[in-house]
Amino acid sequence: MLVLLLILSIIVLLNASKEQLTRSQPDLSLVNKSKMHITSNVNNNKIKPVVNATSGANWVYYNQCDSRWANQQLGWCEGYNICHYGCAISSVAMMLATKGVSVDPSSLDVFLSDNGGYVDGCDIVWAMADAYGVTSFQGIEYADESAICDGLSQDHGIIGCVNGCTHFVLLTGCQGGGVFTVNDPAFSRSTYSIDEITFEAVYH
Description:
The protein contains five helices and eight strands; from the N terminus they run ααααβββαβββββ. The chain has helices spanning 2-24, 82-85, 87-98, 105-114, 145-153, and strands at residues 118-119, 123-124, 137-141, 157-162, 167-176, 179-183, 191-193, 197-203. The radius of gyration is 18 Å and the shape is globular. Mean pLDDT is 83; it is low at 16-23 and 33-54.
Protein backbone atom coordinates (compact mmCIF):
# COMPACT_ATOMS: atom_id res chain seq x y z
CA MET A 1 0.00 0.00 0.00
CA LEU A 2 2.79 2.43 0.88
CA VAL A 3 4.58 1.61 -2.35
CA LEU A 4 1.40 2.33 -4.34
CA LEU A 5 0.94 5.68 -2.60
CA LEU A 6 4.56 6.56 -3.29
CA ILE A 7 4.16 5.73 -7.00
CA LEU A 8 0.99 7.85 -7.23
CA SER A 9 2.74 10.77 -5.54
CA ILE A 10 5.61 10.58 -8.03
CA ILE A 11 3.17 10.57 -10.96
CA VAL A 12 1.40 13.68 -9.63
CA LEU A 13 4.73 15.50 -9.19
CA LEU A 14 5.88 14.56 -12.69
CA ASN A 15 2.64 15.82 -14.23
CA ALA A 16 2.91 19.11 -12.33
CA SER A 17 6.51 19.53 -13.46
CA LYS A 18 5.53 18.79 -17.04
CA GLU A 19 2.78 21.44 -16.95
CA GLN A 20 5.16 24.05 -15.51
CA LEU A 21 7.79 23.21 -18.12
CA THR A 22 5.21 23.59 -20.89
CA ARG A 23 4.23 27.02 -19.60
CA SER A 24 7.87 28.08 -19.55
CA GLN A 25 8.57 27.15 -23.16
CA PRO A 26 6.81 29.28 -25.79
CA ASP A 27 5.16 27.66 -28.80
CA LEU A 28 5.13 29.85 -31.92
CA SER A 29 2.25 27.83 -33.39
CA LEU A 30 -0.02 29.50 -30.83
CA VAL A 31 0.63 32.98 -32.22
CA ASN A 32 -2.12 34.41 -34.44
CA LYS A 33 -0.18 35.24 -37.60
CA SER A 34 -2.81 37.76 -38.69
CA LYS A 35 -1.95 39.85 -35.64
CA MET A 36 1.81 39.46 -35.76
CA HIS A 37 2.56 43.06 -36.68
CA ILE A 38 -0.48 44.88 -35.35
CA THR A 39 0.68 47.91 -33.43
CA SER A 40 -2.16 50.39 -33.89
CA ASN A 41 -5.30 48.53 -34.95
CA VAL A 42 -8.43 49.83 -33.25
CA ASN A 43 -10.93 47.46 -31.68
CA ASN A 44 -14.07 49.44 -30.96
CA ASN A 45 -16.18 46.49 -29.83
CA LYS A 46 -17.90 47.43 -26.60
CA ILE A 47 -18.44 44.95 -23.82
CA LYS A 48 -20.85 45.02 -20.92
CA PRO A 49 -19.74 47.83 -18.56
CA VAL A 50 -18.89 47.04 -14.95
CA VAL A 51 -17.69 50.17 -13.15
CA ASN A 52 -15.60 49.94 -9.93
CA ALA A 53 -14.58 46.39 -10.79
CA THR A 54 -11.29 45.10 -9.41
CA SER A 55 -9.13 42.33 -10.78
CA GLY A 56 -8.91 39.25 -8.59
CA ALA A 57 -5.42 38.40 -9.81
CA ASN A 58 -2.40 38.77 -7.58
CA TRP A 59 -0.33 40.59 -10.18
CA VAL A 60 3.40 39.91 -10.29
CA TYR A 61 5.64 42.99 -10.23
CA TYR A 62 8.89 43.50 -12.14
CA ASN A 63 11.05 46.63 -12.17
CA GLN A 64 12.68 47.24 -15.53
CA CYS A 65 15.78 48.60 -13.76
CA ASP A 66 16.26 45.47 -11.66
CA SER A 67 20.01 44.77 -11.63
CA ARG A 68 19.42 41.28 -13.06
CA TRP A 69 18.48 42.74 -16.46
CA ALA A 70 18.83 46.53 -16.27
CA ASN A 71 21.82 46.69 -18.63
CA GLN A 72 20.69 43.95 -21.00
CA GLN A 73 20.36 45.21 -24.57
CA LEU A 74 16.72 45.53 -25.64
CA GLY A 75 16.12 43.55 -28.78
CA TRP A 76 18.47 44.49 -31.59
CA CYS A 77 18.78 48.19 -30.75
CA GLU A 78 22.35 49.08 -29.85
CA GLY A 79 22.55 51.54 -27.00
CA TYR A 80 19.06 50.64 -25.75
CA ASN A 81 18.77 48.63 -22.55
CA ILE A 82 15.86 47.23 -20.58
CA CYS A 83 16.24 49.76 -17.76
CA HIS A 84 15.78 52.76 -20.04
CA TYR A 85 13.47 51.34 -22.70
CA GLY A 86 12.00 48.05 -21.44
CA CYS A 87 8.67 49.19 -20.04
CA ALA A 88 6.59 47.32 -22.64
CA ILE A 89 8.32 43.96 -22.25
CA SER A 90 8.39 44.37 -18.46
CA SER A 91 4.63 44.92 -18.47
CA VAL A 92 4.07 41.89 -20.70
CA ALA A 93 6.37 39.79 -18.49
CA MET A 94 4.34 40.78 -15.41
CA MET A 95 1.14 39.72 -17.12
CA LEU A 96 2.55 36.37 -18.25
CA ALA A 97 4.16 35.62 -14.87
CA THR A 98 0.85 36.33 -13.14
CA LYS A 99 -0.76 33.74 -15.39
CA GLY A 100 1.77 31.10 -14.35
CA VAL A 101 4.53 31.43 -16.92
CA SER A 102 8.13 31.24 -15.70
CA VAL A 103 9.31 34.43 -17.42
CA ASP A 104 10.87 37.77 -16.55
CA PRO A 105 11.92 40.79 -18.65
CA SER A 106 15.28 39.22 -19.43
CA SER A 107 14.03 35.86 -20.69
CA LEU A 108 11.14 37.49 -22.56
CA ASP A 109 13.58 39.82 -24.32
CA VAL A 110 15.74 36.87 -25.37
CA PHE A 111 12.72 35.00 -26.74
CA LEU A 112 11.45 38.03 -28.66
CA SER A 113 14.91 38.76 -30.05
CA ASP A 114 15.37 35.20 -31.28
CA ASN A 115 11.90 34.76 -32.79
CA GLY A 116 10.98 37.94 -34.64
CA GLY A 117 9.23 39.43 -31.65
CA TYR A 118 10.44 42.95 -32.37
CA VAL A 119 9.90 45.34 -35.27
CA ASP A 120 12.31 48.17 -36.00
CA GLY A 121 14.81 46.44 -33.72
CA CYS A 122 13.13 46.81 -30.36
CA ASP A 123 9.40 47.63 -30.72
CA ILE A 124 7.45 44.70 -29.31
CA VAL A 125 5.13 42.60 -31.45
CA TRP A 126 2.30 42.31 -28.92
CA ALA A 127 0.85 39.06 -30.31
CA MET A 128 4.09 37.17 -29.62
CA ALA A 129 3.09 36.86 -25.96
CA ASP A 130 0.51 34.30 -27.08
CA ALA A 131 3.33 31.84 -27.78
CA TYR A 132 3.39 31.05 -24.05
CA GLY A 133 -0.09 29.58 -24.28
CA VAL A 134 -1.87 31.57 -21.58
CA THR A 135 -3.14 34.64 -23.48
CA SER A 136 -4.93 35.64 -26.67
CA PHE A 137 -3.97 39.06 -27.97
CA GLN A 138 -7.11 40.99 -28.93
CA GLY A 139 -5.52 44.07 -30.43
CA ILE A 140 -4.92 47.71 -29.63
CA GLU A 141 -8.00 49.32 -28.09
CA TYR A 142 -9.12 52.83 -27.21
CA ALA A 143 -11.55 51.75 -24.53
CA ASP A 144 -13.62 53.74 -22.07
CA GLU A 145 -13.47 53.26 -18.31
CA SER A 146 -16.31 50.76 -18.09
CA ALA A 147 -14.87 48.52 -20.80
CA ILE A 148 -11.43 48.50 -19.14
CA CYS A 149 -12.94 47.75 -15.73
CA ASP A 150 -14.98 44.89 -17.16
CA GLY A 151 -11.84 43.40 -18.66
CA LEU A 152 -9.92 43.73 -15.40
CA SER A 153 -12.76 42.04 -13.51
CA GLN A 154 -12.14 39.04 -15.78
CA ASP A 155 -8.37 39.18 -15.18
CA HIS A 156 -7.66 40.20 -18.76
CA GLY A 157 -4.18 41.50 -19.39
CA ILE A 158 -4.41 45.21 -20.17
CA ILE A 159 -1.28 47.23 -20.81
CA GLY A 160 -1.73 50.98 -21.04
CA CYS A 161 0.38 53.46 -22.99
CA VAL A 162 0.68 56.51 -20.70
CA ASN A 163 2.57 59.79 -20.29
CA GLY A 164 1.79 60.95 -23.79
CA CYS A 165 2.35 57.38 -24.97
CA THR A 166 6.00 57.36 -23.94
CA HIS A 167 5.63 54.66 -21.27
CA PHE A 168 3.77 51.37 -20.67
CA VAL A 169 2.21 50.07 -17.45
CA LEU A 170 0.16 47.01 -16.50
CA LEU A 171 -3.34 47.92 -15.35
CA THR A 172 -4.41 45.94 -12.28
CA GLY A 173 -7.70 47.39 -11.03
CA CYS A 174 -10.29 50.16 -11.02
CA GLN A 175 -10.74 52.72 -8.28
CA GLY A 176 -13.66 54.49 -9.91
CA GLY A 177 -13.85 58.04 -11.17
CA GLY A 178 -11.65 57.18 -14.13
CA VAL A 179 -8.69 56.06 -11.99
CA PHE A 180 -6.89 52.73 -12.41
CA THR A 181 -4.37 50.97 -10.17
CA VAL A 182 -1.27 49.83 -12.04
CA ASN A 183 2.02 48.02 -11.81
CA ASP A 184 4.42 50.65 -13.14
CA PRO A 185 7.73 48.98 -14.07
CA ALA A 186 9.72 52.22 -13.84
CA PHE A 187 8.13 54.87 -11.65
CA SER A 188 6.75 54.87 -8.12
CA ARG A 189 3.22 55.56 -9.28
CA SER A 190 0.38 53.23 -8.33
CA THR A 191 -2.47 54.88 -10.27
CA TYR A 192 -3.17 56.54 -13.61
CA SER A 193 -6.34 58.21 -14.84
CA ILE A 194 -8.22 57.40 -18.03
CA ASP A 195 -7.13 60.77 -19.44
CA GLU A 196 -3.48 59.71 -19.14
CA ILE A 197 -3.95 56.52 -21.18
CA THR A 198 -3.55 56.83 -24.95
CA PHE A 199 -4.39 53.22 -25.85
CA GLU A 200 -4.37 49.70 -24.41
CA ALA A 201 -2.84 46.45 -25.61
CA VAL A 202 -5.46 43.89 -24.57
CA TYR A 203 -5.11 40.16 -23.91
CA HIS A 204 -7.78 37.62 -22.98
